[in-house]
Specification:
The chain has about 280 residues and is of the alpha/beta class. It has a single domain (about 10-200, about 230-240), classed as TIM Barrel (Alpha-Beta Barrel). About 40% of the residues lie in helices and about 15% in strands. The strands form two sheets. It has an eight-stranded parallel beta sheet, covered by helices on one side. It has a two-stranded antiparallel ribbon with strand order 1-2. A hairpin with a 5-residue loop joins strand 1 (about 10) and strand 2 (about 15-20). Belongs to the aldo/keto reductase family. This is Aldo/keto reductase. One of its GO terms (molecular function) is oxidoreductase activity, acting on the CH-OH group of donors, NAD or NADP as acceptor. Keywords: NADP, Oxidoreductase.
């Protein structure tokens, strides 16, 4: 596993290459805010952008992609764009319609990755069938899920023709998800971290600060490096260009086995987001 620059990719189990590092746009306002952050990311070497229907900013993300491609001369195929179907649209026909709506807002002909956003009981299997249809028709390059625990993955795979290629979950040093990571690796499912920096709550952590000082790096850079060394795709969010650049400055150092173990030991199974087994939206 060689992850030595911002465009390094992991091979999903269907052979599609997904960048290890990308930009998340959760809670980034549609319009100029999301346009400027996505363009800044692409301009500075990012090739993966992660959005979702519920974020309400797919139109701005699409505008940014269109403008960035024109300004940089990159081809659409050089970007990896992810979106997600929201809970209200889970169902066979409604998921396919939601995919069309996302494509239309983004102004794209296909997505690189489409995910079921949350495992709504009794609804995600029909949605998965729709994703399989979109995939078999060649309308999306890869399909996956988000916020699925092991038992929900097992439940999907019981009836699936195609197993998920990616599972995007909350993951950071206080929620290290080791069991889920082991299960995912065993089944060839790529784990991806959302909220990798725990919404800034870890920046004063003494252990992380100590390790950061050892490498003349920030706590954010240490956490993102920890993700990569565990084989986890990571998508930190920022709207400031300098922070977008700094977040990606993680390819010129490595954490030692001892430092990795120190960070692993911080796990408290503590979430900042909803519990995938107990949510009501």
């Amino acid at each position: 596993m060689t992850i030595n620059h911002l465009q390094s990719t992991t091979n999903l189990h269907n052979g599609v290459q997904m960048p290890w590092f990308g930009l998340g746009v959760f809670k980034v306002e549609d319009g100029s805010e999301v346009v400027s952050s996505v363009k800044a990311a692409i301009r500075n070497g990012y090739r993966s952008i992660d959005t979702a229907a519920i974020y309400g900013n797919e139109t701005g993300v699409g505008q940014a992609i269109s403008e960035a491609l024109a300004e940089t001369g990159l081809a659409r195929e050089e970007l990896f764009v992810t979106s997600k179907v929201w809970n209200a649209d889970l169902g066979y026909e409604s998921t396919i319609a939601a995919y069309e709506a996302s494509l239309s807002k983004l102004g794209l002909e296909y997505l690189d990755l489409y995910l079921i956003h949350w495992p709504v009981k009794g609804k995600y299997k029909e949605a998965w069938r729709a994703l399989e249809t979109l995939y078999k028709e060649g309308r999306v390059k890869a399909i996956g899920v988000s916020n699925f625990q092991i038992h929900q993955l097992e439940d999907v795979m019981k009836d699936a023709e195609i197993k998920p290629m990616v599972n995007q979950v909350e993951l950071h040093p206080l929620l290290s998800q080791q069991e889920l990571l082991s299960f995912s690796q065993e089944h060839g499912i790529q784990l991806e971290a959302w909220s990798p920096l725990m919404q800034g709550q870890l920046f004063d952590h003494p252990v992380l600060n100590d390790i950061a000082t050892n490498h003349s790096k920030s706590v954010a850079q240490v956490i993102l490096r920890w993700d990569l060394q565990r084989g986890i795709v990571t998508i930190p969010k920022s709207i400031k260009e300098q922070r977008i650049i700094d977040n990606a400055n993680v390819f010129d150092f490595s954490l030692t086995d001892e430092e990795m173990a120190r960070i692993d030991a911080l796990n408290e199974n503590r979430r900042v987001g909803p519990d995938p087994d107990n949510f009501d939206f």
